[in-house]
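User: Can you help me understand a structure? I only have the sequence.
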Amino acid sequence: MKKLIIGFFLWVGFHQANGQVVIGPDSTEFFEDGLEEEEGEEESNEYDSIVYSENDHYWDFIRPRNFRFDTTFAPARGFYLGWDTITINPYKVDLKTMEDTINLVLSGYEDCSFHPPAIGDVTSNFGFRRWGRRQKFHFGTDIRMEVGDPVYAAFEGVVRIAKRSADYGYVVLIRHNNGLETLYAHFSQLLCYPGQPVKGGNIIGLAGSTGRSTGPHLHFEVRFQGEKIDPATIIHFPSGSLLADTFQVDKGCFKHLYEVQSAKLKAQKAKKVPKYVKARKGDTIVKIAKRYGLSAKKLSKLNGIKTTTKLKTGRNIRTR
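Assistant: Let's start by predicting it. Here is the structure, written out as tokens:
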């Protein structure tokens, strides 16, 4: 037992000497209270307050002793009114109807240097994809990686969140000087802490497959005031370079939110429709389909009946 304890402190001392201390995801005792999904997270905090996870023991291994981040130095204060180290999206702003057009400088200045977040092939793009037996919107870009591969900060800024989450696993969110926020998910190890300044190209963690993940990869998101933007409209992933030195944020960046909203309403409506419904007097497949917002062609095929055939009152019609 003594040998194990001595070995542990030697290990910590070695990594401290190299300017880097790592605690792995197996150390769940440091995060047992930190499992929460993005939806329904806590309210945001004001600028004059600073919040750290209750699991301070974890940060004792990474951040300097007695470290406190002065929130007056939070980046992009012209776009953000708070500094929250717990909630991924505390802003709750609806940007799909925004009237303004905002031009952000992505490169060309010392504090706007860019580095691709990871080196690897894109395995899943931004947009709808099949998740099991249903379609689900994927709000980021997935990059294939091996466990332990380095993940880099995309731009200069300050780490706002570095924690464990139910969906994202070990996740990092950085607010950048240019006004964007970027999110990196499924780490095997975190190498940064909230309040840490980073430059584009700094290593912030090691790739993994924590959270809801089917294999080692990086899930990468780009956000503005909490709402997600397609990373491929900013980064050319095959070459790992920016598409342009500036980026225009307007309501067109968030038009996908209408599709997501429509899909959710459709799914909710479908859940309310029973598997079998009884035909009313004078009913046809077309009438039943209109009543429940279903496809007449699909109902016709499911029940082996022509769409115009009048149905006997009380007949069971399968809807799915």
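Now, to help you interpret it: The chain has two domains: 22-260, 274-318. Residues 167 and 212 are 5 Å apart (CA to CA). Let me know which part you'd like to focus on.
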